[in-house]
Design goal:
The complex is a heterotrimer. Chain A is an alpha+beta fold. Chain A is 36% helix and 24% strand. Chain A has three domains: 100 residues, Rossmann fold (3-Layer(aba) Sandwich), CATH 3.40.50.20; 70 residues, ATP-grasp fold, A domain (Dna Ligase, domain 1), CATH 3.30.1490.20; 242 residues, ATP-grasp fold, B domain (D-amino Acid Aminotransferase, Chain A, domain 1, 2-Layer Sandwich). Chain A contains 19 helices and 22 strands. In chain A, the strands form six sheets. Chain A has an eight-stranded antiparallel β-sheet, sandwiched between helices. In chain A, a hairpin with a 5-residue loop joins strand 12 and strand 13. The mean pLDDT of chain A is 92. Chain B has three domains: 251 residues, 2-enoyl-CoA Hydratase, Chain A, domain 1 (Alpha-Beta Complex); 220 residues, 2-enoyl-CoA Hydratase, Chain A, domain 1; 42 residues. In chain B, strand 15, helix 16 and strand 16 form a beta-alpha-beta unit. Chain B is α/β, with parallel strands linked by helices. The radius of gyration of chain B is 25 Å and the shape is globular. In chain C, a hairpin with a 4-residue loop joins strand 1 and strand 2. Helices cover 4% and strands 56% of the residues of chain C. The relative contact order of chain C is 0.13. The radius of gyration of chain C is 21 Å and the shape is elongated. The C terminus of chain C is likely disordered. By secondary structure, chain C is mainly beta. The chains are: A alpha+beta, B alpha/beta, C mainly beta. At the A-C interface, strand 16, strand 17, strand 22, helix 14 and helix 18 of A face strand 1, strand 2, strand 3, strand 4 and strand 5 of C.
Chain lengths: 494, 533, 169
């Protein structure tokens, strides 16, 4: 096998742009697909070719397997990179491509499928010797069964939708009394959200950390890990700040986590880049959460500390190449932090914001990496995920990386919609964050400190803003200003 | 230009005595103004509130630009007339800034007597329109008047027509006018809004008609409502007499600001030939200690100039000649101005110096400022022989015919022909102000008392009835009392002999606004050389 | 010129600008500053008294988006006189607090509603929100149908305005 000659990127926004960057480096032509809302986007501009997709909804366009296969055939693309989201974990898509003789840059469909089911993946992980959270063996049939399992693993327990994600169909039961209702709620919510009411029971970890291990596996039996990423800073069950390495993980833990992840990858015959997500309790014990069989949003932090281009490795692996290095040759250097810049209002429950990005200025500087797909003047619509960019900072030490990230966030100018840059900077400024005292409830725990300080707290700053607004406003007509010297005489009456 | 030196000793007993007296006068002025503007019986204010009307001052606040000055003119009009029942002649007028444009505002005060016109009201409107016309100031009329006070109709009728004639002339001169109708404009007053370029009416309260419903009923038997007869909706949608109908006074004034915003802002006559303004180097508050406590006492006018002009800088012309007249150039709020100030009685040399100076300023297009402290031209054999009247006549001739704007301030005494020579009220300076301590009359009260007593005593003696010393003293007292009333600054300002009494420390701002206003009219110089006389 | 400016949806500040260019006098809530706004490349520099702040500015209707002090701000500039003319902010229109899609429309024009009564249900980011009447009244218009998407601030339902003089005798 050889590297593909032309890769269609079945995605949009910053990740499409980022994938094309690696393709270009590898000397591979790129094809973008786009919905009309993204026609003016950066991905379309960066690609060598672009094919428009049509769909009932903008998101639907990017989920149209047949149209994407047809686009490959029309453009002669011999491989597809799915990015993340959309079709990236759709085994049917991978099979459809294979049927058309097109390479899917990702793991084999079987691995996608086995890891895609929460219960199935948990079973496989346990079999591979990965610690899993004590709980039901598969879905529980009734509240009664749930109670039996819960009594066994000990309260509090988490009831979790089998098909779930994003916090839907999840309930915590603090004690036996609360279990029955929690079961019913989780089950009905799961049914409503996913059409699948199955729920399983797990021990609930308090103040858990979310730590994940990046693995790379080639088709020749080499499996390595690229260290961990801590992704505990979340809001709405979505990561917003990720870093590598985790301030919580020491070399020994890293080795154990890595070996565990590699073992699981081997067990499922994994090929390509994948991520084993772990939940880590306050004692440092870790448990299998799930395996993501795709590129992760937060992969840049790993790239920054390892120097490895994960996308390029995915393409090389898909092309049948050997990794060419082993675990011993992978070193982690320095510290990297990524902040996800979203169009959202952090002070209003992180509701997504829309608007026209009238002014876009990303910072640059030593150790700063910006992954983005926005163009000045573009509309941020409610059609897609509101992530605008990823701002990553690398530095020799964690405090320096935090400082660089804060500086870069402050210099990130995105005007025309509401973004979370100030919120992100406040997170980085928290003493608890700086001390590495993080867990997935961090944002809620520090909600007060993370709220925007009232504008009026700094009178001087407020006056600067008000004065600038007045002088810049379209309402300010120089010709209607009081002429001199009458203005200088001021508010005077005889 | 050189900085004027001061010779004022602020620790001297004289300074302190003068200061005390003038601070009292300033306080009295403030209080009098406050009373005239704001003190109204509660029922009058309640009545306004019932009618959903704002006070005239609240209307002005909504109309005028914030942070901009308002130079109210003739604010104590009628203050010593009509037993004080028509404070400010129930009219507020002045030069203000609306949407960045200098405008003349003429606003009825309907808090008393329904804002009725008194004779002084009509004269005040005529004067305001004259100021507007001479200085090309657009006019905003805020109309809310019950019309002429019919008890005084003869005096009113004698001047009221001039209002409408001037409105027509303003229009012909290309000066915009806007009317906002808050109340009734009946009969002749109906022409004020109708003669404006644009008219805004407030629904339900504003009305324009030649005769109101009662008169119509009496005349024709027709029974109509005010709204039908002359309301905002009728006039803006049927008759076309007015242009905009609005629901509230606030809305009307907001709209007025937008109307004014479209008016042109024209370059001023000095073409921007100005200096960056700078406060006087010497403290204007010291004026209180410089102006004497008696109109007969002399003081140095240069000390006043030093406390009015930018940086106390003064380019004095002929400093060693005709020393009872101080002449020279200075800047006030950045505007170049030629100043003539008296240091007492005018001698021939002083008159000639003034005449030449006025010719110089006229040639160069520099506005003239007259600072009065003059008791007249010098009398006596030597002066008459020397032709003092001829020199006075030259000064009058040139002063009357210069084309540059003239502004006068009565700082102290302003008497006899000296007042004329210094562009007193009757010589039509563009604007004229007076300090509360000032006194103005045909001659000084003592001289007048002397003259009149002598005449009366001589007459009695001719009839063989020589007066007793007591009778002589009584005559003297009568004459003095008459003078004391009629040459007093409050009386004069009440009768509109000036455009307003001002606190001496307000002089600089008043003049800055005045100079800004007068320079709106182009200065067209008549040909002619400057004579060294 | 007078403005009423709200910053980040806070309370309104009275701002007057009474001079021009480099010598502008900006009075904010009665406090006077000397200030000027200067373009520097595609950014701006505001001088206020002795303070010099670099900033980025974008105008969007009456909104002024600013980037200063390391973050973005939104100021809304209103002409107070104009607002007076408009009769103040209206409570007659229920508008969308966030972008989304209409799920349920509970009222039709002509319906009488009481304060707190649900008008429409909208969904955004899988969250459903009920938009309720802020006062008693009668529905005038329903602007969107079920399934329609909208942006933040979109008008959803309007009530028949109250007579302006209702409180008069």
């Amino acid at each position: 096998m050889t590297l593909p000659a032309k890769v269609l990127v079945a995605n949009r926004g910053e990740i499409a742009v980022r994938i094309m960057r690696s393709l270009r480096r590898l000397g591979i032509a790129s094809v973008a697909v786009y919905h009309t809302e993204d026609a003016g986007g950066l991905a379309v501009r960066e690609a060598d070719q672009a094919v428009e997709l049509f769909g009932a909804t903008p998101v639907g366009a990017y989920l149209d397997v047949a149209a994407i296969v047809a686009a490959c055939q029309a453009t002669g693309a011999d491989a597809v990179h799915p990015g993340f989201g959309f079709l990236s974990e759709n085994a049917g898509f991978a099979r459809a491509l294979a049927a058309a003789g097109i390479t899917f840059i990702g793991p084999p469909p079987a691995a996608i499928e086995s890891m895609g089911d929460k219960l199935e993946s948990k079973r496989l992980a346990a079999a591979a010797g990965v610690p899993t959270l004590p709980g039901s063996d598969g879905a529980v049939a009734s509240a009664q069964d749930a109670a039996t399992v819960a009594a066994d693993v000990g309260y509090p327990v988490l009831l979790k939708a089998s098909a779930g994600g994003g916090g839907k169909g999840m309930r915590i039961a603090a004690d036996a009394g609360a279990l029955s209702e929690a079961f019913e709620r989780a089950s009905s919510e799961a049914l409503a959200s996913f059409g699948d009411g199955r729920v399983f029971v797990e021990r609930y970890i308090e103040r858990p950390r979310h730590i994940e291990v990046q693995v790379l596996a080639d088709g020749h039996g080499t499996v390595v890990h690229l260290g961990e990423r801590e992704c505990s800073i979340q809001r709405r069950y979505q990561k917003v700040i990720e870093e590598s390495p985790s301030p919580f993980v020491d070399a020994e833990t890293r080795r154990r986590m890595g070996e565990t992840a590699v073992a699981l990858a081997r067990a499922v015959g994994y090929v390509s880049a994948g991520t084993v997500e772990l939940i880590v309790d306050e004692q440092g014990d870790f448990f299998f959460l799930e395996m993501n069989t795709r590129l992760q949003v937060e992969h840049p932090v790993t790239e920054l500390v390892t120097g490895i281009d994960i996308v390029a490795e995915q393409v090389r692996i898909a092309g049948g190449e050997e990794l060419g290095y082993g675990q011993g040759e992978i070193t982690l250097s320095g510290h990297a932090i990524e902040c996800r810049v979203y169009a959202e209002d952090a002070d209003a429950g992180f509701i997504p914001a829309t608007g026209r990005l009238a002014l876009v200025r990303f910072p640059s500087g030593e150790g700063i990496r910006i992954d983005h797909g926005v163009v000045e003047g573009q509309e941020v619509s409610a059609s897609f995920d509101p992530m605008l960019a990823k701002l990553a900072a690398w530095a020799p030490t964690r405090p320096e990386a935090i400082a660089r990230a804060r500086g870069a966030l402050r210099r990130t100018v995105l005007l025309g919609t509401i973004t979370n840059t100030a919120f992100l900077e406040r997170v980085l400024a928290q003493p608890a964050f700086q001390a590495g005292d993080t867990h997935t409830g961090f944002v809620d725990e520090h909600a007060d400190a993370l709220a925007s300080p009232p504008v009026g707290d700094d009178d001087e700053a407020e006056h600067v803003l008000l004065a600038a607004a007045a002088l810049a406003s379209r309402r300010f007509d120089q010709r209607l200003a009081v002429p001199d010297p009458l203005a200088a005489i001021g508010d005077w009456r005889t | 230009m050189q900085r004027l030196e001061t010779h004022v000793d602020t620790s001297s007993p004289t300074y302190r005595a003068y200061r005390e007296r003038n601070l009292e006068l300033a306080q009295e002025l403030r209080e009098t103004l406050h009373r005239a503007r704001h003190e109204r019986p509660q029922r009058a204010l309640d009545r306004l509130a019932e009618q959903h009307k704002l006070t005239v001052h609240a209307r002005l606040d909504l109309l005028l630009d914030k942070g901009a000055p308002f130079l109210e003119l003739m604010s104590l009009a009628a203050n010593r007339h009509y037993d004080g029942e028509a404070p400010q002649a129930l009219l507020v007028t002045g030069i203000g800034v609306v949407s960045g444009r200098e405008v003349m505002v003429i606003a009825n005060d309907s808090s008393l007597k329904g804002g009725a016109w008194y004779p002084i009201t009509t004269r005040k409107i005529v004067r305001a329109l004259q100021v507007a016309r001479e200085n090309r100031l657009p006019v905003v009329h805020l109309l809310d008047s019950g019309g002429a006070n019919l008890h005084l109709q003869d005096e009113i009728y004698a001047t009221a027509g001039k209002i409408f004639q001037q409105q027509c002339q303003l229009s012909a001169d290309g000066i915009p006018q806007l009317a906002v109708v808050f109340g009734y404009c009946t009969a002749g007053a109906a022409y004020t809004p109708t003669l404006c370029d644009q008219t805004i009416m407030v629904r339900e309260r504003g009305a324009i008609f030649l005769a109101g419903p009662p008169l119509v009923r009496a005349a024709t038997g027709e029974d109509v409502t005010t709204e039908e007869l002359g309301g905002a909706d009728m006039h803006t949608s049927v008759s076309g007499v007015a242009d905009y109908a609005v629901d509230t006074e606030a809305e009307a004034l907001a709209l007025a600001r937008d109307v004014v915003a479209v008016w042109a802002r024209r370059p001023k006559a000095d073409n921007g030939d100005r200096r960056e303004p700078e406060p006087p180097f010497h403290d204007p508050q010291e004026l209180y200690g410089i102006i004497p406590d008696d109109v007969r006492r002399q003081f140095e006018m240069r000390e006043v100039i030093a406390r009015i002009v930018d940086g106390s800088l003064f380019q004095e012309f002929k400093p060693h000649y005709g020393d009872t007249m101080v002449t020279g150039w200075a800047y006030i709020w950045g505007f170049k101005v030629g100043i003539l100030g008296n240091n007492g009685v005018i001698f021939s040399e002083a008159a000639n110096k003034a005449t030449t100076f006025m010719q110089l300023c006229d040639r160069d297009g520099i506005p003239l400022l007259f600072l009065h402290n003059v008791t007249g031209f010098m009398v006596g054999r030597a002066y008459e022989r020397n032709g003092i009247t001829k020199d006075g006549a030259k000064m009058l001739m040139v002063q009357a015919n210069v084309t540059v704007p003239k502004i006068s301030v009565l700082c102290h005494a302003s008497q006899g022909a000296g007042n004329y020579a210094m562009a007193g009220r009757t010589w039509d300076p563009r604007l004229v102000y007076a300090w509360p301590n000032s006194r103005s009359s045909i001659m000084g009260p003592e001289q007048a008392a002397d003259v009149l007593t002598q005449v009366r005593v001589a007459g009695m003696q001719r009839r063989g009835e020589p007066p007793t010393p007591e009778e002589t003293e009584r005559i003297r007292t009568e004459v003095t009392a008459y003078f004391a009333q009629t040459y007093h600054s409050y009386y004069l300002t009440s009768d509109l002999r000036d455009d307003g009494l001002i606190d001496p420390t307000d002089t600089r701002n008043t003049l800055g606004m005045s100079l800004s206003a007068v320079l709106n009219a182009p200065i067209v110089r008549a040909p002619g050389g400057v004579l060294r006389i | 010129m007078s403005f009423e400016i709200t910053l980040e949806g806070g309370s309104a500040h009275a701002v007057d600008v009474t001079r021009l260019d480099a010598r502008a006098i900006v009075t904010i809530d009665g406090r006077e500053h000397r200030g000027s706004l200067r373009r520097v490349g595609d950014a701006y520099e505001l001088t206020l008294a002795d303070r010099v702040e670099p900033l980025w500015i974008v105008l969007d209707g009456d909104a002024v988006h600013l980037h200063a002090f390391g973050r973005a701000w939104t100021a809304t500039v209103v002409d107070p006189v104009e607002r007076a003319r408009a009769g103040g902010p209206s409570e007659d229109v229920a508008s969308a607090p966030m972008p989304g899609v209409v799920i349920i429309v509970s009222v039709a024009p002509g319906d009488a509603v009481v304060e707190g009564q649900g008008l429409v249900v909208i969904e955004s980011m899988k969250m459903q929100n009920e938009i309720v009447a802020v006062r008693d009244g009668v529905v005038d218009r329903v602007f969107l149908e079920v399934g329609e998407t909208f942006d933040r601030g979109a008008r959803l339902v309007s009530l028949v305005p109250l007579p302006a003089d209702e409180d008069e005798d």
